[in-house]
Write a structure and sequence with these properties.
This protein is an alpha+beta fold and 144 residues long. The protein has a single domain, classed as Molybdopterin biosynthesis MoaE subunit (Aldehyde Oxidoreductase, domain 3), CATH 3.90.1170. The chain is 32% helix and 38% strand. The chain contains 3 helices and 9 strands. The strands form 2 sheets. Strands 3, 4, 6, 8 and 9 form a 5-stranded antiparallel sheet that branches. Strands 1-5-7-2 form a 4-stranded mixed sheet, sandwiched between helices. α2 packs antiparallel against α3. The radius of gyration is 16 Å and the shape is elongated. It starts with a strand and ends in a 7-residue tail after the last strand. The model has no long low-confidence stretch (mean pLDDT 94).
Length: 144
């Protein structure tokens, strides 16, 4: 399991490839499900120029670890990768990568969705959007 919060942009496909190459589960995994979340240039009917994403260092990683542990045990996962951006993010840039490895596809698909939904509702992240004419804190997440 690897969980990482990053301030710099990342290419999720390069990250996934590098992680998979070094993974000890390569011969056991029959499935890998991934989710990549990117920043949109709109929200709630407004144009969004940039977003600043804040987190609570230490607490965020701990909460993500709890989420991943619970889902891994529930579904018998072999491995999980979670990368999440913080700081200033521009439209089109990736925010989050979740990868779940398991022996079978159902566990991988189900786990990837469960981790992502829990991350959006339980992990301590805060978003501030810069619109064309003002800034605002995002008070709720989009439905899954």
């Amino acid at each position: 399991m690897h969980i990482e919060i990053r301030h710099q942009a990342f290419n999720p496909w390069h990250e996934l490839e590098a992680y998979t190459r070094s993974a000890s589960h390569r011969n056991q995994a029959g499935a890998c499900a991934t989710f990549v979340g990117s920043m949109r240039d709109f929200n709630e009917g407004d144009t969004v120029r940039t977003m600043h994403l804040e987190h609570y260092p230490g607490m965020t990683e701990k909460q993500l670890g709890v989420i991943v542990d619970e889902v891994s045990k529930e579904n018998g996962l072999l491995d999980v990768l979670v990368l999440h951006r913080v700081g200033d993010i521009n439209p089109g840039e990736e925010i989050v990568l979740v990868g779940c490895w398991s022996s079978h596809r159902k566990a991988a698909f189900d786990s990837c969705r469960l981790i992502m939904e829990a991350l959006k509702s339980k992990a301590p992240f805060w978003k501030k959007e810069k619109l064309l004419d003002r800034e605002r804190w995002v008070s709720r997440n989009t439905p899954g």
